[in-house]
Amino acid sequence: MANRAIMELWVGIFVIGGIVALTMLAMKVGNLSSADVGDKYNVIAKFENIGQLKTKAPVTMAGVRVGRVTGIRVDDNFNAVVTMSIADRFNSIPADTGATILTAGLLGEQYIALEPGGDMDTLKEGSELTITQSALVLEKLISQFLYSQADSGDK
What we know:
- By secondary structure, the chain is of the alpha/beta class.
- Helices cover 28% and strands 32% of the residues.
């Protein structure tokens, strides 16, 4: 009987460990694994097309995550306005920094990559990034390629 109780205890520990592992995996896949704690400042950038960019998408500089996308809205000129929350420890980012929407891998999630400029002034709360490059839409590129091939075939 005691042997059975020990076995049930080990099975219970194994099940709890499996649940913890699955929870951690779900948080990692859901991009929720890193708790964003600490001070931050918000900057905005306007794009003509953001593709499939979503809130909580990473904001990187030189491959290092410096923040997250916290909001997406459309302004009066029908441009997408993206609000980014940047960690306060990255407070020396030049004011003329450019923002580009990139895709992780061929069909991965989209993120914003920042490319620092050379300005002596730095980004502050509420700053706007004026140098932006919209997302590349695969369908648009394919249609342009097919159209150019059809046009060159007519000659």
